[in-house]
Structures are given as C-alpha cells and as structure tokens.
Write a structure and sequence with these properties.
The C terminus is likely disordered. The chain has 2 domains: 310 residues, ABC transporter transmembrane region fold (Up-down Bundle); 128 residues, P-loop containing nucleotide triphosphate hydrolases (Rossmann fold), CATH 3.40.50.300. 64% of the residues lie in helices and 11% in strands. With 584 residues, it is of the alpha/beta class. The protein has a 6-stranded mixed beta sheet, sandwiched between helices. A 4-stranded antiparallel beta sheet has the order 2-1-4-5, with helices on one face. The relative contact order is 0.08. β9 and β10 form a beta hairpin. The longest helix has 51 residues. It has 21 helices and 10 strands. The chain is elongated and about 120 Å long.
Length: 584
Amino acid sequence: MRRLLRESVRPYRGWLIAALLCMAVMATATALTAWLMKPVVNDVFFAENSDMLWIIGGAVMAAFVIKGLANYAQATLMAYVGLHIIADNQNRLYAHLSRLDLSFFHRNPTGKLISRFTYDINLMRGAVSNVLTSLGKDLLSVVGLVTVMFIQDWPLAALSFFAFPLAVFPIVRLGRRVRAVTADTQEEMGQLTTLLEQTFQGIRVVKAYGMEEYEKGRMGEIIQRIVRLAFRAARIRALSSPIMETLGGAAVAIVIIYGGFRVIGQQTDPGAFFSFLTALLLAYEPMKKLAMLNANLQEGLAGAQRLFDLLDVEPGIHEKPAARPLSVSAGRIRLEDVRFAYEPGRPALNGITMEVPAGMTVALVGPSGAGKSTILNLIPRFYDVAAGRVLIDGADVRDVTLASLYANIALVSQEITLFDDTVRANIAYGRAGADDADIIAAARNAAADEFIRALPQGYDTMVGEKGVKLSGGQRQRLAIARATLKNAPILLLDEATSALDTESERQVQAALGKLMRGRTTLVIAHRLSTVVDAGLIHVVEAGRIVESGSHAELLAQGGAYARLYALQFAEEAPSPETAQAAQA
C-alpha cells in the first residue's frame, strides 16, 4: 500500500487535496442538513414560526446545491487522477518490459502480460479511486454527522456506536478472502487472454484441423472457472451487508427506544432527537461504504502486487555503467571460446571460436538444434555468453551501449515481423523520420517497389496483423527493404529464404545480394544452394564447429558438409520419371 501511494498516487497529491476539499464541503453540507432538523421541529412545527420556515427551507436548498456542485467537482477530479494512474502505470510497465531480454518473453505467455496491462492495472486504479473517495467523502461525511449527533445528545451518540467496533474483525477477514480470490481470478484472466491470443493468431490451424469444438471447450472451462471465482468474491463481499444491516438496525432501535424515553422524560427536546436520528440515518450509507472499503482495497492490492512483481523483474541483459558507444570501422565479428546454455546442465554452445571477417559473407550450416541461431543471437546480445567473448572490431559487446550495438546491426529472419500499419511505416520502422525518397529507394533495392505500387493504396496500404494481407515473398522483401533503409554495417540473416517457393526465393536472393554488398554478413542457411558463394562456411554440430572452409573446400574434404550437401541434393533432385516427363 505504501508503494502504491508513493509511486502512483503521490504525483497527483495536488489534485487529491482539491478533491478532498470538495469532499469536506460535501460532508459539511450533509451534516448541515441533519443539524437543520432541530430548528425545523422546534421553531417551525412546535413554535409555528413562519419566518423561520423560509429561512430553513432556503438553507436546506442551499446545502443540497452546494453538496451537488462539490460532488461533481470531486468526481471529476478523482476520475482525472484514476485515469492518469492507469496511463502512467501502463506506460511504465511497457517501458520496463521493453528493456527485458528475450528469455523473459519466452518464459511468459503474451496473454498473461496483456492481462497485467488491462485487468490488473484497472483493479489497482479502482482501489485507488474507491478507497480515496471513500476515505474522503464517506469518512468526512460520517465525521460530520457524528459530530452533529454528539452536539445534539452525546450520551445517546456514545450508546448508539457501541456495536460498530464489533464489525471490524469479520470485515477484515472478509477482505483477506477477497484478496486471495482476486489473485486467483487475475491468474485465470491471464490464461483467458493467452488462449484468445493463441487461437486468434492460429485460426487457420484451428479450422484446418477441425478443432473449433475443442477450443470452445477449453475456452468454456476457463470462463467457468472465472465465473466461479467472481461469484465467490461477490458472495464474500456481500457478507458485509448483513453484518452492517444487523448492527445498523440495532443502533437505530436503541436510539428510538432510549431516545424516545429521553424525549418523553423531557431530558432532551424533540428537535434535538429528530436531528440526531436524521444524522444517524444519513451516516448509515457512508458507513456501509466504509465497511466495503477493505474488500475494495484488497482487490486493488492484489492487482498492485502482480504489477509490482513484474516491475521488479530485473533484465538479464545489463548495460554497464561505463559502457561506451560502439564505433564500427570495419565490422569484423569474432567469437572466442564461447559457451552458452539456455538451461543449466544443457549446453547449447561448447567452446565456439570463429571469425566473420570485415565485409565478408560467412554462412553457418548444420542440422536443426546444432546451435546456429544461438550463435547469431549472441552477436546483438539477445542473450549473454556464459563464458568467452563476442567481439565487434575488437570491442566486447558487453562493454558497449545497447543502443549503439543495435544501431549497427540489421536482422532479417524467416519469421518476419510486420506491424498492422502501412507498407511505408513498416519499411521505415528501423529508421524514424526517413523520407519518401529513401523508403522508395530501399523498396526498389529489395525488389519490392513493383508489387507495392500494385497494392490498393500503394505505400499507404495496411498490411494487416503480421502482414497477413501479403504473400510470404512480399513480407520477406519488405523486411529486406527495412534492413536496407537502416543501412547498418553488420547484417544477420537467419534462414531468410527457407519458407519461400522457387520464384519468391529467386527474387529475395537477388534483393539479398544487393543488401549484402559491402557489409559484414552472417548467414544461417537451411538450403545449402543459397550459400555456395559465401566466402567462408562453418558447419555446426552439437554446439561445436566441426568444419570450416569454402564450398569447394568442404566438398573436397568429404566430411559433414559433403554429406549434408549430398543428402539435400538427393532430396531436391527430380526422380527419373519426373525428368523424362519434363523432357517429353
């Protein structure tokens, strides 16, 4: 709670003070309404003073008008604070998550992270708004009304409040139960968001395999669990009502009986008694809200706890305090005895030493799971080495600023990331502020300008989520155009043509050829035919480099590369029957 107030509420203390002042005006107006019941009864009804009738009537009207205006002002101020608390924490959470390393996102499903942005932060905002409003408006109203009660008849006031402390213990217990149920509900909401995200993105697979009913069943189970938890929380919250109703009824009954005897015995006047009774009845509703305050607070604290847990996650990739900008003069990459493991005891790389000379194209080939992508991911520090060093022009990547490291590297992979934005915005994504001439030039170099101009709105065409409105080859060429526009001296290609048909691969390879000129390029290739012209080829097996050389040298050795090449050539070569049919 202290952290919530310090980090989220304190920046708006000026607005809150103004809101509290409005609440104080409301409380005063409410107390004044109860206090006016005494002259209404004594001066108007009993004394039959018509002049006082107009005065008191005007005073009551003024009290209600003031109360209404103050209520509007405090509601507006609290809405401003609540909405800005949401915005601040969403911005803060997004900024924090963007600094975390890839391993964090591999461990945490997207849907769960999204639920923190929506459900958890909204719960926290609700707690802040409801609690502060209740502490301000309701508590001040109760204080004002209780003051009137003690002014009118302090022995009766003391007697009427004997039972309310008894409500504290069960209400506190109910609040703890609400917090536990709310935490479980938040977890299930994360599961729901994850399932929605997965099924919507994989809808083609869901339909192709006829799994609609299966997914409906999974969704139904999660929704039912959420319903059960929400109903349990509602039931727990509702328990405070009979507690307060019982205690409130007891207090009113005591006041009527004991106060009635005091009026009959002329120990107090009827006006004071009715003023007292009015104050008690007016105090009942804000007291009920105060009783619900703990449950609302616990719900919000459950959301705040999950938010703070996420904000407290430290990035696995740290920038050193003395990190200096990376200055790339040639672009030479060197790995020295690099070792790495995604999980303890399961090494992915076992002492990799290799070099990518400046301006040369070097390829990594080998079976799936050999460690090729791991090597590539260590260069831009998506992960840090467990041992050894990764150097660029002699500088350890751990000693330079991350911004300068990323600025000098362009990446094109088989998993193209396009955003639901225009073609123009997707090409310019790596270089903010690029002008149209540069964007079009990059598209031409990537052999993309022609198909872009054929789109309905040309460069202003929306590509859809993940570029769903484009073909695989078109998406790949936009990614190449993006890398071309960035114009980084180091280029990383991760199986950039593995998922393309022959014609698309030909177009993309031509675009890649232009992109690689004059750049230090590291290529991961599944199709060996795409790397036969590489200056150097490393064969990776089980986290080690087992062979190195040019295409011709490796074939001549007759080792692992030659076996891979022969196997792939046999798979891709046409059968005798197909060849005869083609000749015919």
